């Protein structure tokens, strides 16, 4: 089963509804559409969400900069997901625990855990507490936390496409790609059997544009950032 982008007003199925503290939701991002993660807007300005938190193991690949990866993380947290971030650059992710804030007892929120790039025991995901594991391990990441449980989504952050990432890329339920140089666009065309027109489109995307790729899916979209997200992330950009 592939992930689906959902437009308002279309009957694309109903995703579960998760709960999160309203103050946190207001602080980090726009609300999700019944469990969907808002990832941007269509060419006509319509909001687009993806049902990434669901009752089956899910893989998402992000090809691009840290801006995109951290925005997806913020919006996952905003719709009620726990986050485990495995990374070799923990300082780049410290804004997530800051955004989550502290508990009433003054301790950091348990919603976000930043870990090294090594296997650890994960929280048990459930319908009420879905889990998003972000693997930020470079262009050839080890599959340290493959999604094995319902309500677990593993997100692989690839700064660029590499031939050794082909297996992970092919196994993804959905891929979000920012602009690629010609060599990487040619590799993308080989991995996903893209026609020349789509390959060329990957090389001409603006800094705020992304291609959503999946089974029977090729959808250009524009990243949209709220004022509060911009305070955390800075302006929309392609790089880190």
What value does the average pLDDT take? Answer: 85
Helix content: 10-25%
Extended strand count: 11
Number of alpha- plus pi-helical segments = 7
Strand content: 15-25%
What Rg is obtained from the alpha carbons, in whole angstroms? 17 Å
Distance between the termini: 32 Å
Low-confidence spans: pLDDT under 50, at least 5 residues?
A: 8-34
Strand order of the largest sheet: 6-5-7-8-4-9-10-11
Could you say which structural class the secondary elements and strand pairing correspond to? alpha/beta
Order of helices and strands: EHEEEHEHEEEHEHHEEH
- Outline, from the CA principal axes? globular
Main beta-sheet strand count, sense and barrel state = 8 strands, mixed
Describe the protein in words.
- This protein is an alpha/beta fold.
- The protein has 7 helices and 11 strands.
- The protein has helices at about 20-30, 65-80, 95-100, 165-170, 180-190, 195-205, 225-235, and strands spanning about 5, 35-40, 45-50, 60-65, 80-85, 110-115, 130-135, 150-160, 175, 210-215, 215-220.
- An 8-stranded mixed sheet has the order 6-5-7-8-4-9-10-11. Strands 1-3-2 form a 3-stranded antiparallel sheet.
